[in-house]
Amino acid sequence: MILSGIRVIDLIHLLPGPFATEWLIAMGAEVIRVELPIGGTGSGRCPLSTEELGEWLFAVNRGKKSVAIDLKGPAASGFEVPP
Hints:
Blueprint: E1 7-10, H1 16-26, E2 30-35, H2 50-61, E3 65-68
Parallel strand pairs: 1-2, 2-3
């Protein structure tokens, strides 16, 4: 595959980002999605129901690895995060 050996960090939570990274996976890249802590999907403005949102998130994130990072928690001391 053309992107084999390439690692991509996905920080985007709006629809175009996940779709774009799906194409990168199809071309062989490894995609690591950075998630918000539990309870935050980054899609609060999404007009889908909870059930539809779960299906949508599964569809656009298949094949991706993910990691959750809480920049406001105690382990993130020393970092400035805007309110």
